[in-house]
Write a structure and sequence with these properties.
By secondary structure, the protein is of the alpha+beta class. It has one domain. The strands form two sheets. The chain has an eight-stranded antiparallel beta barrel. A two-stranded parallel sheet has the order 3-4. β13 and β14 form a beta hairpin. About 45% of the residues are buried.
Length: about 400
């Protein structure tokens, strides 16, 4: 499937773009003027969007060490003497076959990443080593502080937020916070997964916009309209490979990826109401049409973003993710994710199924979604709307 990307600037096609560009040199923030009584409109391009990892003391967070990679998980199934034998150079081909082919195949030849459900009862692929600390990024998504079951949640342990907030729901961090692919070597570099997810936006595979309308006071405003959109436009990068501020982007014409929710600004921090669902493009380069079909589904989502003096936004998105949708990119990649990427897809999926804490299945009672927190960083941008059409609004009662 071929995606056609428009150039970021729409010269000759949209008078709004020309007007915005003519004022770019004078703009200190990407602001589109509006009548005074309606407040100003602020546009942003999201430049970081990946699972939040809290880096506390490693021995406290991960006292049992890192979750094994696929090859390490295979070697743990072997006796010490057999492990030593397989690690000898002369047995390299045998080791490759055992962990890259045999270990990543089910009894009927199932692919560990394409069919992770087939491995739920496979003891060779255990649940991830969970984070043991009590602190995490995230939000109280279910409204209680003790982790007890509700009509919309399953029994689970809560975290304390980094600012002392009680009842933080972030089971995704619990299972990924000690995984090498997500935790990486520390906060300076992060894990390879966060680097990959953010690089997808630099490559233009998918990009997101945030727009604040009706802002009368950037420090305190009780009534702000918040739009979260996908865009097919590709971001221009600096020579250092960073997104450039004050570019112009057109909102996607696909109404599925239009999301509008009410928000408020308190002491310079934007808080949104709970959104029933925020759906965004999640195009992946893996497997052509299969990658093109991916979507982000954030259920009962909230944004908490600080409006910084330099004009950027920084904070988190808290929500529940469907575990089947979350594992879609690994499924698209197939065994290559487990071997080249060295991620045990069966263990990842099993961990999400075990720790899922949201939206229980009415028949089985098993929760189908997992709470999470995404880092969000966004820089000033000009946001252009397509021709008027129906928009999806996604507000629900808290």
């Amino acid at each position: 499937m071929t995606r056609v990307r428009r150039h970021t600037f729409h010269l000759g096609k949209n008078a709004q773009a020309l007007m915005a560009l003519s004022f770019m040199a004078m703009a200190t923030h990407s602001t589109v003027a509006a009548p005074v009584e309606e407040g100003e409109t602020l546009g942003f391009l999201v430049t970081q969007f990946a699972i939040s990892i809290y880096y506390g003391d490693f021995k406290t967070d991960c006292p049992d060490g890192m979750t094994p990679t696929t090859d390490e998980a295979f070697l743990l199934t072997q006796t010490p003497s057999e492990r030593a034998r397989l690690l000898r150079p002369e047995n390299a081909l045998e080791l490759e076959k055992k962990w890259k082919i045999d270990f990543t195949s089910g009894p009927n030849g199932e692919d560990i990443c394409r069919n992770p459900r087939s491995f739920l009862d496979d003891p060779r692929h255990p649940v991830h080593l969970p984070v043991q600390s009590k602190i995490s990024y995230g939000m109280n998504l279910d409204g209680n502080v003790d982790g007890s079951a509700t009509p919309m949640t399953c029994l689970h342990d809560n975290f304390t937020g980094i600012n002392g907030e009680a009842g933080v729901d972030n089971q995704m961090y619990r299972i990924m916070g000690c995984a090498k692919s997500w935790r990486g070597e520390g906060p300076k570099f992060g894990g390879s997964m966060a680097i990959k997810y953010n690089s997808y936006m630099k490559d233009g595979l998918h990009n997101y916009l945030i727009e604040l309308k009706g802002v009368n006071d950037r420090r305190n405003d009780p009534d702000v309209e918040v739009g979260i959109y996908s865009t097919e436009d590709k971001s221009m990068l600096s020579g250092a490979g960073d997104h450039l501020p004050h570019q112009t982007f057109a909102i996607t014409k696909n109404p599925r990826w239009h999301n509008v929710v009410h928000g408020r600004i308190v002491d310079g921090v934007l808080h949104t109401d709970t959104a029933d669902a925020i759906t965004l493009d999640w195009f992946s380069a893996l497997n052509g049409p299969f990658g093109a079909a991916n979507e982000y589904e954030f259920h009962r989502a909230q944004l908490r973003l600080e409006l910084l003096p330099d004009g950027t936004l920084k904070g988190i998105l808290g929500a529940y993710l469907p575990i089947d949708a979350t594992s879609a990119q690994a499924r698209n990649g197939g065994k290559g994710v487990a071997t080249n990427g060295n991620r045990d897809c069966a263990s990842e999926y099993k961990s999400m199924a075990v720790y899922a804490d949201g939206f229980p299945d009415p028949k089985t009672g098993q929760c189908t979604m997992i709470s999470m927190s995404n880092d969000v960083v966004a820089i000033p941008a000009f946001v252009l709307h397509p021709d008027p059409g129906p928009q999806k609004t996604a507000s629900v009662e808290p």
